[in-house]
Amino acid sequence: MIHLWHGTEQRVGHLGDGQADFNLLGDVEDPSYLTSLTCSINGSWPEWSLQVGSRPDGYGDGRRLARTGHFNADIPIDMLRPGENVVTVTATYKEGDPFHLTAYIELETGSYEMPALIDWSRVQNVQDAGQCVDGHWEIHEDGLRPLHTGYDRVFLVGERHWRDYEVNVRVTVHRVDEDTGPRSGGNGLGILHRFQGHVIGGPRKFPPHQPKWGYQPVGSITWLRWMGGAGKPPEKQFYRGDGHRTTEHGAFNLELAKTYHLKSRSTTLEDTAEGLGVTRYQFKIWEMDTEEPAVWDFDETQESASALRSGGAALIAHHVDVTFGNVVIYDHTDV
Questions:
Q1: 35 burial type by CB count under 10 A (0-12 exposed, 13-18 middle, 19+ buried)
Q2: Is 26 helix (H, G, I), strand (E, B) or coil?
Q3: Residue 335 lies inside a defined structural domain of this protein
Q4: Residue numbers of the domain that contains 297
Q5: Measured distance CA(268)–CA(132) in Å, rounded
Q6: pLDDT tens-place string over residues 237-283
Q7: Is residue 179 part of a domain?
Q8: Hey, how many other C-beta atoms are within 10 angstroms of the C-beta on 200?
Q9: Is-contact 285 262, C-beta < 8 A?
Q10: Are residues 173 and 88 in the same domain?
Q11: What was the pLDDT predicted at 334?
Q12: Residue 114: in which H helix or E strand, if any?
């Protein structure tokens, strides 16, 4: 009746302070007969309600719940006690007794130091390398891959205090969704810089929701974006961390099943006289086993009052079926 994508025994905190929430991800069977889905921590009362993807077009809630039946319990980490926590998810249907599933979440203490070197062949559990913020992620022979496509499949590496870093990762695109749903816009693939978790409120006044869907402020997104549809080449795009403004830097002739090297960098610069934060973002992508281009595909300087100045690096696949290969992240200013 209830499936937890990353198992009934999970942990958080061992990789430091990545975001304020722990995301318990899964799906329920027969969602059309479901009357409620609730969650409790360590027997606390009252339980709180979880939203289940239920749009008639099959796109979940149109955002973070990518499919019918999906759920994402964004559990505040400060509600967990050190050590083992018992999380009970209860599904109540129109007929029959409620169905209960118990998960054990271990709250640990740790840190995520740079350089971060993720060799997927040596990783047994995805949660040993990062946090599954959205999506069902699984380690395959060639790397990390979401088992289903959808809105912003996000895998977070690092901590909220991370600031300046360069991300190196190989990507192999298997499929680009023809349709992206009601709220997604063009497909995308790349790096989300300085991510600290989803928000309610903030400068853009995102409304309350479960799961939270406020995706800004962040640092920025540096990625490929299929603005003209899945059948056309993607644009190399810079997406600001404080609003909808983007800058396109030309098309990239990506071929399915071919592997590319993606490199993205954030660098803090001196604030403006008015106190705006200034960050330089650079991005390049090229075919594997060919010479790295000498120049960046784009080099953007962002001035902002609200874009985040620190946060982890997130691998992001937006309606794209992709394998992320081994990951290297280091502080390029500390060399």
A1: exposed
A2: strand
A3: no
A4: 116-330
A5: 27
A6: 999 999 999 999 999 999 999 999 999 999 999 999 999 999 999 99
A7: yes
A8: 13
A9: yes
A10: no
A11: 87
A12: none
Whether residues 165 and 212 share a domain: the answer is yes
Residue 45 pLDDT more than 90? Answer: no
CB-count exposure of residue 296 (10 Å: 0-12, 13-18, 19+): middle
> In angstroms, how far is the first alpha carbon of the chain from the final one?
52
How many angstroms separate the CA atoms of 176 and 109, rounded? 38
Instruction: Give the mean pLDDT of 169-186.
Output: 95
Sign for the CA dihedral angle at 245, 251, 257, 262 comes to negative
- State phi, psi for 327 to the nearest 5 degrees: -115, 135
- Across the range 95-100, mean pLDDT stands at 94
The answer to whether residues 171 and 263 touch, using CB atoms and an 8 Å cutoff, is no
User: Quick one: pLDDT at residue 46?
Assistant: 74
One domain for residues 179 and 76: no
Q: Are 50 and 173 within one domain?
A: no
**CATH number of the CATH domain containing 24:** 2.60.40.10
| Domain end call among 62, 88, 107 | 107
Whole-angstrom distance, CA of residue 311 vs CA of residue 314: 9
